[in-house]
Amino acid sequence: MNNKLYGKLIFELSHPGRKGYSMPENKFGNYTLPAEMKRSKDAMLPECDELTVVRHYTNLSGNNFGVNNGFYPLGSCTMKYNPSINEEMAAADAFTALHPQQPENTCQGALEVYYNLQKSLAAITGLEEFTLNPFAGAHGELTGLMIIRAWHESRGDHKRVKVIIPDSAHGTNPASAAVCGLEIVEVKSTAEGIVDVNDLRGLLDDTVAAMMMTNPNTLGLFEKEIPEIAKLVHECGGLMYYDGANLNPMLGVCRPGDMGFDVMHINLHKTFSTPHGGGGPGCGPVGVRKGMEHLLPCPKVVKEGDTYKVQTQGEGDIHVGAYLGNFGVAVKAYSYILSLGKENIKMAGPLATLNANYIKERLKDVYDLPIASICKHEFVFNGLKDKSTGVTTMDVAKRLLDYGFHAPTIYFPLLFHEAMMIEPTETESKETIDEFINIMRIIAQEAKDNPELVKTAPHNTPIGRVDDVLAAKQPVLRYKG
């Protein structure tokens, strides 16, 4: 767009005296505010007419990229499409008009949704019972680790203060363990990208509280040694924790509870389609195996006969919030599960795996594939195969913007210097995936024929390449006229 007004800040469009809204007539009289509540000078606010404001924010919204706009292949984030029916259900008046403190007999429908979602998640994962209270994945991790710590302490086993975490893990794993007051012990990966069982054996003793694992792991690889790992950890008295960030490709294939995991969290805002990104909203339910249900935090929804009740006190003393988590996200996830049904939800995992392997195989001749084995829902390239061009993963990511695609996750995991993590999810069509593959191949050829074109990308966006370090360290958060 060449319009000179497009791209300006709302403050730059301001003109003294312009009004976009007229306040209604004052019917309440005039009251004097205390001096300490008054400003020393007027707030610096933009003065614009309504049409200017509408056009400004409408044009600005066009700069936002979301899964509703185009392909969003962020690895380890599962940016799958959120069906409109989910939003319609969550926006229903019967749900949005509720108050968390109203009597139970007036919100039986909402409590039934909670209860059924808890049971659905238990069936899908092979665990006994879930709490929906945590507000995000990391919040779920912390809750799960608190449950594990409480489990050991309830048995008088106070010396278990270590959590074993693979070197390929998401950064939230060690962060959550540290916040929980536990000591982090790193276990190495093999050359094939999975946990090194021999390295693990040397780390196990009676101070180990748990081992945290993501399966498939952050490289998109299925941890095939889990039966042996679970056996070893359980034999030393530790528990197995499943980070559910990558649960998506497991749907319909296998269940964490059947693998030997004792506690896990699920990212509803990833695996079950609810919106993910921009800091929320999120929901990180935590599930436990049979025998640990009493440690789940309250409040929780229970069923007595045909009536649903909120249990506010339990045997456990873990508290993660006064209410029952993020209700809107829970409604969307339950809508997604009901829409797919028991039969079709089994297709999600295999289709996500098929899409990821299809992209990997179609691009591995031009992009460096450090681990060539079959992946699950995501995989990692180590930049371009031809390193002589000097074109980096960052350059490829920026160039993708010129072609209307969001970039994949880059420079993570840290195991590879030029990591490029791609996750297509099961919701993308073959036509979309083929177009992404085609553009990735075009960029690889551009890197050979005209590397400066790629190194200086993007060229077709409202803002070119910014100084990421400066933007992070010295962000400009206020307008200074």
UniProtKB/TrEMBL annotation:
Family: Belongs to the GcvP family. C-terminal subunit subfamily.
Domain (Glycine dehydrogenase C-terminal): residue spans on this chain: 351-449
InterPro entries documented for this protein: GcvPB (IPR023012), GDC-P_C (IPR049316), GDC-P_N (IPR049315), GDC_P (IPR020581), PyrdxlP-dep_Trfase (IPR015424), PyrdxlP-dep_Trfase_major (IPR015421), PyrdxlP-dep_Trfase_small (IPR015422)
Domain Glycine cleavage system P-protein N-terminal as annotated: residue spans: 30-297
GO cellular component: cytosol; glycine cleavage complex
This protein's UniProt keywords: Oxidoreductase, Pyridoxal phosphate
Entry protein name: Probable glycine dehydrogenase (decarboxylating) subunit 2
Cofactor: pyridoxal 5'-phosphate
Enzyme Commission no: 1.4.4.2
A GO molecular-function annotation: pyridoxal phosphate binding
Encoding gene (name): gcvPB
Keyword Oxidoreductase among record annotations: yes
